[in-house]
Every structure is written in structure tokens, then in C-alpha cells.
Write a structure and sequence with these properties.
The complex is a heterotrimer of chains A (281), B (539) and C (341). Chain A is mainly alpha-helical. In chain A, 75% of the residues lie in helices and 0% in strands. Classes of the chains: A mainly alpha (281), B alpha+beta (539), C mainly alpha (341).
Chain lengths: 281, 539, 341
């Protein structure tokens, strides 16, 4: 454990960007937890007398077309956005690594079946598939999560399959088998922990992608329902106001969204360095 | 080569790629000539045939610009100086004159003799007969619209000779003549169409879908579905003064921010049907002209569906009408571009003007008292739905309603419904307890609005409202002449009932907004909410 | 070698068949699960029950699902993708006219991304861990962190609305110009073939903003892969030998190192291409681009079954074809791979 810690410190010291990403990540998590407490206004309360006001001391990020405080909405959205991406990513991680792990470990017919299934999803234009799923099931937060999970599934399945198939002949797996462990135990306790690191990288990259995906759905009107505050829908709605000069409606949620996605992407790189010292120099 | 020079090269390549967006729009670019008009709309026509099932609203443009009708409407100047069609004045187009039989059993139309179709063949009464037969036979929208004017079956239409056409009356109605001037009643070149008709497709739906076979002021030059439609002037048009615009390019730009940027930067001559916010702000732009006209017979309404409890209780509906934050909605959703329809002093309508203000205003105490009287002192929960395609006004209105009604304990969940699903859910199944709606009637009579929206079982009666007295009064007034005995009293009566029972709570009457460059002249508002190109010119 | 490549193609096509079949089934079910009732939608604003029934029949929607599916398969076998009800055109025709627009945009976006990302990646690899490396990484990651529609609208605002440097975001050509005679459907190529340089300039100017929007989104994977591949190659023995042999850095970098790093970069390019083709949907909407993406979007909103099915099938076939091309290119670049794999 101490060795890992030292390695972590080393990577952080070597790479200021990764350090930046990690701090940003903790910042986001804090905002997500304490969000509603940090917001100066009720994010849902409209104020017809104060619509479309530019940023000022009273409203740090200005107000929107209903007079709602943009700062409060940006802060409060953090929780929902992180929740959507965490939920979507956990789902696709769980099912993807299970399917991919089995495919790689057992090989043969299982492998072929999973492989064809993954190929089918991959051959879809992914965003259009997400659109189709959400419009078929209805635009609720859960359905956005399912759609995002489905289109991310193949990535996990592929990584897990590659890792599992590379390791299935390894000595420690052989040893576990010989000492009488069942397939389930081997997959879960022996293979699982060893294919986790490369999966972590994928998770981090997908978190960002999940947020972007939800934002794209919002842009075509299939995002979360109003009046809930969510970065993507705020950017999508705010984009209409850029040309008329009310830039703050889109820029601030856009910046928050970009920071979060950037954070997850950089984190993915950082994790790769952490788990796989070979790619470092 | 050293590493340094390589790095320079790499940086140069990156910079070069970065310059791509800066490519100057070259001055050699051809300018748009004076007699060409560039129009922006959010959807382009999906068909050139108004009779075809599935033709969208922008598709009505083809009927308006490529075809003539027997009749048309006059023009009037509105109080603000803008121009509008005049629904009180029915004027000749292809028909030079018309005469009702003394016993009222038929109307005979004399056609003008100089009228030609785009292919040069003369317009005859046989073409009119074929076109009307088609409209009442293909089913769907055209058939229903013809029926509104008491034209129901081919046997009613007769070509007496080449230039005399007769409509036999089966049901005398004041709506027949006005209905002959709506977009559906087009006169098609039947010889050309029949050439392309097949046994499976006797009405040439395939051919007319993609081609214009009319005699109107414009013909179709090219059509790229989903992108643009280009109209070219028909120089042989005789039904009115030759239009000034030789070529009209109708471009689809789905993004409203882009539409606004284009008109502000002068890359388009006219932007049709813009959002109220843009209209309000562009009015301040000295380079542009904005014309907003209250849309006749159209209201943005909050509908309460009587099928769902507790909206079957009139006190609950009235409570909602007292809880609506009218002023805020007018300011935030309509940007004050509309006509206020609340705050009438009396519950008895004094005139038959329509739409007119309802006797409600935001009064939370009365709303609470009514809810209490209805046995719901703590309010209730329901779902407020709106059509995603109308989000520009529905969404802010819905959010304000959610907040405003929440103040009296009515807790609403908001549900956006995609356009494809809206019709099924709201109009066919009538399955939405609370929703926002924007019906507008083509024929400008209160009884016509009531026919569609208040009579039981009608498509747009999405409130499932059923009042035998209203049903009867609408039946009695629909075909009756304006000013006939009892007409006004009956109208006032059903208006009063509608105001008291409020299955539909009006929010405001919307505007049709058009932004154009200063040099564009002659824009006219029409009830069909489409652009009539023939009257426009660029100074 | 030649027959090996052919075997490879054959095997890959055979492997792709189940995926394509899966796509056909899933899309069919998904479109039927869309909430709208197309018969009601297309019956128009004042339709009654009778005219809705009439339209349902004419669309063939009164039949059971298996029956509809069978009819769909039968038409498909004849190469008939059905008719897009919302535009009234055959789906095949729509796709054929719109595909070049999407491909031209995507390819140019990819070109832009490669032109910027590969030098950046190589630059980062030559001095790993330095501030240049970190800056490159931050830059390209920032590009992939913004929703494409936002980048697009933002570029339009700056370069068209404020600066007037870019043309109006109105499709593929300036309004006053006429499309070049259709040979490939790519305006850039067709206009050059027709020697119409005004059209060429206009087409290029129209492409600049949407292609940059797509390109910015594609920087990260390309730059990242270039950097990683270059790092791997640069630390290998033969590069050390080449350096020791006195070859210039330039020769070492491009002739020896980059050529060997090309393989993974090429794979990434292929992946990014198919990803961009899907990401097109939103960019096309922002720029009123007459491609297949905007077509699919409208079809989905209108529950236009045939159009959605046709679009998804076309995209899936393209995906299969693209992967095949990459596999074949692989064997050409590096004869060690592929034939048996």
C-alpha cells in the first residue's frame, strides 16, 4: 500500500496536470455534496422583474429568461450531472466487464456471442441510438442513464475481454483453478482485481463522455425535464441567447460542463500513468 | 534539418490548420439581385401538394404561391399601419363573378377567360371540377376543410361549360364562399395531372407531390426537401398585377439563433415567423423592419381536461384561472408581443368580438377559496404537458404556471412531449390532464373556434368538454349568416358559458412576427400564416 | 499476399453479417417503440378517425409487426429502403444525395484534426514531461470537453456574427451560387472538375466552420495516440542506433520513428472517423448542413420509420466497410499482421 502511495505522490509531482485534475475532481465532488447549501438563491424560483440581467454582485453569473439565478443553477446542477454520469458509467462498467470478462475467460461460443453483440452496438451510430432509446422510452433521467450506459457498454466489454483473455492462462489463474476455485470465484476475485486498472481509465474517460451525451440530448430537446437544472440543458437553452448578446446564459454552464469533462479526461490520462508505469517515461 | 526547424514546421502546420476558419469570404462572391428574395423559415415544405396526407404546415406555401383559387380575400391596413388580408371582403381570383341561384340551391361561377396554367394551357371549369373532386375525395385534411364550407362530395360540383362552374348547395352555409379562398381550394391543371395519374394513384398524388401544376404567380424551380425551395415567377399570370419578385429562395434554417444572425447581418431579406423575443429586440435595430400581427382566431391557452379529476369540478377550473400568473407569462413567455386576454370587468360579453378578455385575473385568495369550496384546501397534484415544437413559448409559460399554481397548492409536474407524439396524446386520446395549446381557426368566426375546440368529440377539444347547450348553440350559428336573427345572442351566450366554465383558460393572443430588411415592402398578414410572395418587392 | 487479402475481406464480411442483421432487427423494434403514431402525425392537423385509418393502411401499419418486418426484409432484399413519408422521397435517394455532404464535412474535419493533432502529438513526444507536453495535452483535451453544438454555435457567433470572417452558416454554398455538376457529390472536387473556382472557394468557406467544429472534437484521441506511439518508438533500440549512426533528428523523427508509429495512428483515425460521422448529427443541425445526420434527426422526431431504418442501416454498413478498409490497409503497411488474424 505504501508503495502505491509513494507512486501516486511521484506521479502527482511529475505531472502538474494530473494534480490539477485530481484537485478539480475533489472540488466537483464537494460542490455536488454541498451544492444546495452553496447556492445563494433557490435555483427554481423565477423573478419576472429581473429577467436576463447580466452578471453583477447580486447575481454572479446573471439571471436567465425567467429571472432565475444562473450561479445557483450551475452549482446545483453539479449533483445531477455527476449522478447521471456515475450511474450510467457504473451500469455499463458492471455489465460490460462481466460480459467482456466472461468472453475473455471462457472463450469459444461465449466469446463469439458477446463479440457479435458488441459488434452490433458498435455498428450503430451511437448518438442516434441514444436518441432513439430516449425518445422511445421517454425523456426521464433514468432513461438518459440507460441510453448512455448502453452506448458505452461495448468499450468496457472490449477492454475487459482483451485483459481477461490475455490473463486467463496466467500462472495465478491456473493456481486458483487447481486449488479448487469455481469459475465465478476466479472471475470475481482473481481476474477482477487484475483487470480493474485498465478499466479505471475507461471509466474516467466515459464519465466525461456521459455528461457530453446528456448535453447533446438536451440540445435536441430530449434531455432532463424542466425545471431541473442540468448543465447540458442550460447550455442548449442558453445557446439561443448568444446572438442576442445574453452570453452568460450559455457560457457559465458551458464552462462548468467543460471543466467537469476536462477533469475526467485528464484524470483518465493520470490514472493510466498511475496504473501502467510502462507508458511513463 | 534540425529539430528546431522541424518544430517550426510543425507549429506552422498547426497554425495553418488553425487559420482555416478565418478564410475570408471572398469579395468575388455574387450578390443577391434586387428581384430575388431570400426568405428564412424553420421548416421547409415537405410536399408541394396541400391535398397529400402528411403535408406539413410550411407545405401550404405551395398551394398559396403556385396555385390560384376561384376566390381570394381583399386587403386592409391595420391600425399600426401594417397590411393584412381582409376576411370580410371576398374578391375574385379565377372567378370573375358569381351568382347564387334564386332558390339558393346552387352558386354559379364565371371564370376569367385569359387565365393560363404554367404550361400555357387555358384554365377551364373542368380543371376546377377535377380539383374540387380531388379535395373532397383524397380524405384527411383537405376533405375536412372542404366540408367546413359545406362541400362534401363530387356530385356537388359541375362544369357547365369551359368557363362556367357550378356548386350545388347541400347545406346552406355562410362559410362556403370564404372556404373557397382558403389554401385547400386550389385549382390544379387537370390535363397535366391526369397524364401522371395511374390506376393505383387516380389523383396523381405522386406527381403533384414533387411538381407544381398550377396557374399561380409562381412555379417551382427546384426543391431540395429539408433544405430549400426555389420559386420562379410565372410571367403569364393574369389574376393580378405581375409580382415584382422574379425568384424567391426559401431556406430552411432550423436553429433560431442562426436565423437571427442571418437577418441581422443582412444575409437574408426576410425571416418568417420569428420568436417574440427576437421580434421585440429587433424592433430596436435601425437596419430592420419587424411586423407583428395578432393572429386572428388564435389563442395560447391552458387546457384543463374534464376527464381527469378534479377538473370536472367547475370551481377547480375557476380556481386555476384565478391562480394563473397572467402578467408574468405575458412578460416572460410572450415578451409583451401579444394581446392580453384576461381582466375583463364583466362576466357577460358585451360584443361578439373574438378572442376577447376573460373575466379572470391573478387572485390567489379567490383561487384558494374556490379550492376550499371544492373540498381541496390543500390542493392536488397533476401533470402539465406541452408540445416540444412549441417550447419557445410553452416552456417559460409552463415553468411560471408550475410556480404560480404551486402557490395555491396545485403541484404540477412538467412533461415535454415530442411533436410526433403530441397529436396522438393531446388530440386523439385526449389523455393530458393539463396542457398548453395554440389552436387557430382559418375562418375568422367565434363559432368556428368553438366548433373545433368546445363542441364535444371534436379533434381540438382536448379538454373533453361537453356542454349540450354549447353544442346546440354552435350548431345553430355555424352556418347562419352574420347578423341573422338571434345570431349575436347565441354567440354571446356560448361565449359567456365558455368564460364561466373555463375548460380552456386563455393566456394571450399571439402575434405572427416577421423581420425583414428595410427595403422589403408589401408584406401582408394572412390567416394561413404563410408568406404570400406575390405582394412583396425590394426597393 | 493477394489471395490472403481477399480471404481476409471475405472473412471480415462474413463476421459482419450477424451484426448487420442485429442492426436491422434492433432498428425495426426501436422505431416501432417510438412514441408517436406516424399515421396520426401524417394525417394532418384536422384528420378524423377514418382518414387516420386510411393512412395507417397506406403506410402498411395496420399489419402485424412480424408481417411488417417480413415486408421490410423483402423490400430490403430488392434494394428498396422504402419511402421517407416526411419528405415523400425514396429513402435511398435521400441518403444518396445527402451522404456526400456528410462525408465531405467529416473528411475535412478529420483532415483538419490530423493536420493539427499529429504535429502536436509528435511535438509532445519529443519532449515528454515538459511544459510543452502538458500544454498540448491540456489543449487537445479541452477541445474534446465541449459539446460540439456549443463549439459550433460559439464559432458561428465569433467568426460570422461578430467578425464577419466566415460566410453565413447556410448549408454548402452561398445562396447566389449554383451547385457544380454532380460527379462525386463532393462540392470541393466537383467544382474543381468543372474548373469553377468561385464555387470551390465558396464551398471551402462554408465548410471551414463546421469542419473545424468537428476537428476540434477529434484532436484529443489523435494527438494522444500519436504521442503514445511516438514515445514507444522513440525509446526503442533501432532509433537509438539510427541516432548513434549520425542521422539528423529530422530524418530519425519522420523517416524512422513516425513511419513505425503510423499503424496505431491509422487505427485511431478510422475509429475517429466513424465516431465523427455519428457526432455529425448535432453539427449539421447547427450549420443547416444538408447531410444525413440532420435527415435522421428530423425522421426520428417525426417517427418516420423507413427513414430512421435506412439511416441506421447505411451508417452500419459504412462502419463495417470502414473497418474492412482499415484491416486491409493494415496488412499493406505491415505485412506481419492480419492475414491469419
Amino acid at each position: 500500500m505504501g508503495r502505491h502511495w509513494r507512486h501516486l505522490r511521484y506521479v502527482m509531482g511529475e505531472n502538474p496536470i494530473t494534480l490539477f485534475a485530481f484537485s478539480l475532481f475533489f472540488g466537483l465532488v464537494l460542490v455536488a455534496i454541498f451544492g444546495p447549501g452553496l447556492a445563494p438563491y433557490d435555483p427554481l424560483a423565477s423573478d419576472a422583474a429581473n429577467t436576463l440581467k447580466p452578471p453583477s454582485g447580486a447575481h454572479l453569473f446573471g439571471t436567465d429568461d425567467l429571472g432565475r439565478d444562473v450561479f445557483s443553477r450551475v452549482v446545483v446542477s453539479t449533483r445531477l450531472d455527476l449522478a447521471i454520469s456515475v450511474a450510467a458509467v457504473s451500469l455499463s462498467f458492471a455489465f460490460g466487464s462481466l460480459a467482456g470478462g466472461c468472453a475473455g475467460y471462457f472463450g469459444g461460443a461465449v466469446d463469439r456471442m458477446v463479440g457479435r453483440f458488441v459488434d452490433t452496438i458498435m455498428a450503430f451510430p451511437l448518438f442516434v441510438l441514444a436518441m432513439g432509446i430516449v425518445s422511445a422510452l421517454g425523456n426521464t433521467v433514468e432513461n438518459i442513464v440507460y441510453a448512455t450506459a448502453i452506448i458505452n457498454f461495448p468499450f468496457y466489454a472490449r477492454v475487459a475481454r482483451a485483459e481477461a483473455s490475455a490473463r486467463r492462462g496466467a500462472g495465478y489463474i491456473e493456481a486458483a483453478r487447481l486449488s479448487g476455485n469455481g469459475h465465478g470465484r476466479i472471475l470475481l476475485f482473481h481476474l477482477g482485481p487484475n483487470i480493474l486498472p485498465p478499466m479505471m481509465v475507461q471509466i474516467s474517460l466515459n464519465m466525461g463522455y456521459a455528461i457530453l451525451n446528456a448535453a447533446g440530448l438536451s440540445f435536441i430537446g430530449l434531455g432532463v425535464r424542466p425545471p431541473a437544472a442540468e448543465w447540458g440543458i442550460m447550455v442548449a437553452e442558453g445557446a439561443k441567447f448568444i446572438v442576442s448578446g445574453e452570453w452568460w446564459l450559455a457560457i457559465f454552464p458551458g464552462a462548468a460542463l467543460m471543466l467537469a469533462v476536462l477533469c475526467f479526461n485528464l484524470l483518465g490520462d493520470g490514472l493510466r500513468d498511475l496504473f501502467d508505469p510502462r507508458t511513463r517515461t | 534539418m534540425t529539430r528546431r526547424s522541424f518544430l517550426k514546421l510543425g507549429a506552422g502546420a498547426a497554425a495553418g490548420a488553425g487559420v482555416l476558419p478565418f478564410l475570408r469570404h471572398l469579395p468575388a462572391e455574387a450578390a443577391v439581385p434586387k428581384d430575388t428574395l431570400v426568405v428564412l423559415i424553420s421548416d421547409v415544405p415537405n410536399s408541394m401538394d396541400i391535398h397529400r396526407p402528411g403535408t406539413n404546415r410550411p407545405g401550404y406555401q405551395s398551394a398559396i404561391n403556385f396555385y390560384d383559387r376561384l376566390l381570394t380575400y381583399g386587403r386592409k391596413t391595420l391600425p399600426d399601419g401594417s397590411l393584412s388580408y381582409d376576411y370580410r371582403k371576398v374578391e375574385p381570383e379565377l372567378a370573375e363573378s358569381w351568382q347564387a341561384a334564386p332558390d339558393g340551391s346552387s352558386i354559379t361561377f364565371k371564370l376569367r377567360k385569359d387565365a393560363k396554367f404554367h404550361d400555357g394551357s387555358p384554365v377551364t371549369a373542368h380543371d376546377v371540377k377535377w380539383s374540387f373532386d380531388r379535395a373532397v375525395s383524397v380524405g384527411g385534411f383537405p376533405t375536412i376543410q372542404m366540408k367546413a364550407g359545406a362541400m362534401e362530395k363530387p356530385a356537388q360540383f359541375a362544369a357547365v361549360d369551359d368557363h362556367t362552374f357550378r356548386v350545388n348547395v347541400v347545406r346552406k352555409s355562410k362559410l362556403m364562399l370564404p372556404d373557397l379562398a382558403v389554401p385547400v381550394a386550389v385549382v390544379v391543371n387537370s390535363k397535366l395531372a391526369k397524364k401522371h395519374a395511374t390506376a393505383k394513384d387516380p389523383w396523381a398524388l405522386e406527381y403533384l407531390h414533387k411538381n407544381s401544376a398550377g396557374g399561380g404567380p409562381y412555379k417551382l424551380e427546384r426543391w431540395d426537401p429539408g433544405r430549400q425551395a426555389v420559386y420562379a415567377r410565372f410571367d403569364g399570370w393574369k389574376s393580378g398585377p405581375l409580382p415584382a419578385i422574379k425568384r424567391a429562395i426559401i431556406r430552411e434554417v432550423p436553429n433560431e439563433a442562426t436565423r437571427r444572425a442571418l437577418i441581422v447581418r443582412g444575409d437574408a431579406d426576410l425571416s418568417f415567423d420569428i420568436a417574440p423575443k427576437d421580434a421585440k429586440e429587433l424592433l430596436a435595430d435601425p437596419k430592420l423592419k419587424v411586423v407583428g400581427t395578432p393572429i386572428e382566431n388564435c389563442i395560447h391557452v391552458l387546457c384543463l381536461n374534464l376527464k381527469f379529476k378534479p377538473f370536472d369540478d367547475v370551481r377547480v377550473r375557476q380556481a386555476v384561472a384565478y391562480a394563473v400568473p397572467y402578467e408574468q407569462i405575458f412578460k416572460v413567455a410572450a415578451y409583451e408581443r401579444g394581446v392580453k386576454l384576461w381582466g375583463a370587468k364583466s362576466a357577460d360579453p358585451k360584443t361578439i368580438e373574438w378572442p376577447q378578455p376573460f373575466p379572470y385575473e391573478t387572485d390567489l385568495d379567490r383561487a384558494k377559496a374556490l379550492l376550499k369550496a371544492a373540498g381541496l384546501p390543500n390542493g392536488f397534484e397533476s401533470t402539465l404537458s406541452f408540445n416540444l415544437g412549441l417550447a419557445y413559448w410553452s416552456e417559460p409559460a409552463a415553468l411560471l404556471l408550475q410556480e404560480g399554481l404551486g402557490k395555491v397548492g396545485i403541484r404540477l409536474k412538467i412533461d415535454k412531449i415530442p411533436g410526433a407524439n403530441w397529436r396522438t396524446k393531446a388530440l386523439i386520446e385526449k389523455a393530458l390532464p393539463v396542457h398548453l395549446e395554440n389552436f387557430g381557426g382559418w375562418l375568422n368566426y367565434p363559432e368556428y373556434y368553438y366548433f373545433w375546440c368546445y363542441q364535444s368529440g371534436r379533434l381540438f377539444n382536448s379538454s373533453s368538454y361537453n356542454n349540450p347547450e354549447v353544442n346546440r348553440l354552435v350548431d345553430e350559428t355555424l352556418d347562419a349568416e352574420v347578423g341573422s336573427p338571434g345570431y349575436e345572442e347565441k354567440i354571446k351566450k356560448f361565449l359567456q358559458i365558455g368564460m364561466r366554465e373555463v375548460p380552456r383558460i386563455p393566456l394571450y393572443q399571439p402575434y405572427l412576427e416577421v423581420a425583414m430588411q428595410k427595403n422589403v415592402e408589401g408584406y401582408e398578414f394572412w390567416f394561413h400564416r404563410q408568406l404570400v410572395v406575390k405582394k412583396l418587392k425590394k426597393a | 499476399m493477394r489471395s490472403g487479402t481477399l480471404t481476409l475481406i471475405g472473412r471480415r464480411l462474413l463476421q459482419a453479417a450477424p451484426a448487420v442483421m442485429g442492426i436491422i432487427v434492433v432498428t425495426f423494434v426501436l422505431t416501432r417503440a417510438l412514441p408517436g403514431d406516424p399515421a396520426v402525425f401524417f394525417a394532418g392537423p384536422t384528420a378524423d378517425a377514418q382518414s387516420i385509418a386510411q393512412i395507417r393502411k397506406s403506410l402498411g401499419l395496420d399489419k402485424s409487426w412480424p408481417e411488417q418486418f417480413w415486408i421490410y426484409l423483402r423490400d430490403l432484399a430488392r434494394g428498396d429502403l422504402g419511402k421517407a413519408v416526411s419528405t415523400g422521397q425514396p429513402v435511398l435517394h435521400e441518403l444518396a444525395t445527402r451522404l456526400p455532404a456528410s462525408l465531405e464535412l467529416t473528411l475535412l474535419g478529420l483532415l483538419f484534426a490530423a493536420a493539427a493533432a499529429i504535429p502536436l502529438g509528435v511535438l509532445a513526444a519529443t519532449r515528454p514531461g515538459s511544459w510543452v507536453d502538458h500544454l498540448c495535452r491540456l489543449l487537445v483535451t479541452a477541445g474534446v470537453s465541449l459539446p460540439t453544438f456549443f463549439t459550433g454555435l460559439f464559432l458561428v457567433y465569433i467568426f460570422y456574427f461578430l467578425l464577419g470572417a466566415a460566410p453565413a452558416p447556410l448549408g454548402r454554398l452561398h445562396i447566389a451560387l449554383v451547385e457544380p455538376a454532380r460527379v462525386t457529390g463532393f462540392f470541393l472536387i466537383d467544382s474543381l472538375l468543372a474548373r469553377d473556382f468561385e464555387v470551390f472557394r465558396s464551398a471551402l468557406a462554408q465548410l471551414a466552420l463546421p469542419a473545424s467544429t468537428l476537428g476540434i472534437f477529434a484532436l484529443a484521441p489523435l494527438a494522444r495516440m500519436t504521442r503514445a506511439a511516438m514515445l514507444g518508438v522513440l525509446s526503442s533500440d533501432f532509433i537509438r542506433t539510427a541516432r548513434a549512426g549520425g542521422l539528423t533528428s529530422w530524418t530519425v523523427l519522420w523517416v524512422y520513428a513516425f513511419r513505425n508509429a503510423m499503424l496505431p495512428v491509422l487505427t485511431t483515425l478510422g475509429m475517429v472517423f466513424s465516431f465523427l460521422l455519428g457526432a455529425n448529427v448535432l453539427v449539421e443541425k447547427v450549420f443547416a448542413w444538408p447531410g444525413i445526420g440532420s435527415f435522421a434527426l428530423e425522421a426520428l422526431v417525426a417517427s418516420d420509420y423507413a427513414a430512421v431504418q435506412g439511416f441506421v442501416l447505411a451508417m452500419a454498413l459504412m462502419y463495417v466497410a470502414l473497418n474492412l478498409v482499415i484491416d486491409v490497409l493494415y496488412t499493406l503497411i505491415d505485412p506481419r499482421v492480419g492475414v491469419e488474424g
